[in-house]
Amino acid sequence: MTLRLSTVILPVDRWHEGGRAKWQRAEELGFHAGYTYDHLSWRSFRDRTWFGALPTLTAAATATERLRLGTLVTSPNFRHPVTLAKELISLDDVSGGRVTLGIGAGGNGFDATTLGQEAWTPRERADRFAEFVPLLDRLLTEDAVTQEGTFYSAVEARNIPGCVQRPRLPFAVAATGPRGLKLAARHGQGWVTTGDPKLYEAGTPEQSLAAIRGQLDKLGKACADIGRDPAELDKILLTGFTPEQNTILGSLDAFVDFAGRHQELGFTEIVIHWPIPDSDFAADEAVFEKIATEAVAQLG
Question: What backbone phi and psi angles, to 5 degrees, belong to 181?
Fold first, then answer.
């Protein structure tokens, strides 16, 4: 399968002061998809401009025609399945069926406490995620849903007419632990990883590759346990969080080497961050555009 190349455009620009232009340029450059983070604020951008994901994607849907759109990733930290489902159905309609939902269990960032709650433990996040994803699946595929859960409930929730994409828009589930991988196997059309966070600062590229290979093996087992062919799932790598970090955007050759090694593991989509000056995602835009337009052809 030909490797797909996508980009993440962080919501850091006012729409009429560069935001719209980036999404349109992403389509012109031939990216498969344009994603954005679904956070209320994020790391070093906490005291900088940061807009909402779903309104940004809705605007991007009206500014583009072919580019797929999505979140990398949405989490239960500040979302509820009932309201999220309604917004996703609306976004899928506006985009003409071009939406992919990247979804994960969330973490301990600013989103975890901004609504006034204590940050959930890893077990609590896993418990909530295990309830969140199946309910959201139902809400996006059924006209009316009633379900009482420990954390999330729906009472005669109506979602007519449903998604443009049938039976619903695709889920790309971000997971590395056993419970999350089971959700990816059962409910996902894709699986997302950023690599092993323990190797981000002190690991080597070889160690990272081995760790990701191990994640893929575990995904394969989770699929086998329910009789699903893991080849049915897209394997998506969000870059910028492996030992190579953004050095892969230093040259076309560096990126092709990195992407080729991960393509050999079975990845079907590589996602790179749109350059942002004075940030962890700073990169030469000319090199970035060269990668966007030439890398896939070299990878075959």
Answer: -65, -35
The total of other beta-carbon atoms located within 10 Å of residue 84's CB is 21
Pairing of strands 4-8, 154-158: unpaired
Cα angle 212, 260, 277 (rounded to 5 degrees) comes to 85
Cβ within 8 Å of residue 74, ≥6 positions away? 38, 53, 84, 101, 102, 103, 104
Tell me, what amino acid is at 152?
Y
- Please choose, from the candidates 214, 219, 217, the residue with its C-alpha nearest in 3D space to the C-alpha of residue 184: 219
Closest CA to 110 of 38, 180, 200, 179: 38
Compute how many other C-beta atoms are within 10 angstroms of the C-beta atom of residue 119.
Answer: 14
Amino acid at site 88: L
Which secondary-structure segment (H or E) carries 264?
helix 252-265
Helix residue spans in 64-204 (DSSP H):
81-95, 122-141, 178-187
Q: Which of 274, 282, 263, 255 is nearest to 35 (CA)?
A: 274
26 CB burial (10 A radius; 0-12, 13-18, 19+): buried
C-alpha torsion sign, points 261, 265, 271, 273: negative
From first to last of its 300 residues, what are the pLDDT tens digits of the chain? 789 999 999 999 999 999 999 999 999 999 999 999 999 999 999 999 999 999 999 999 999 999 999 999 999 999 999 999 999 999 999 999 999 999 999 999 899 999 999 999 999 999 999 999 999 999 999 999 999 999 999 999 999 999 999 999 999 999 999 999 999 999 999 999 999 999 998 999 999 999 999 999 999 999 999 999 999 999 999 999 999 987 999 999 999 999 999 999 999 999 999 999 999 999 999 999 999 999 999 997
Q: Say whether 206 sits in a helix, a strand or coil.
A: helix
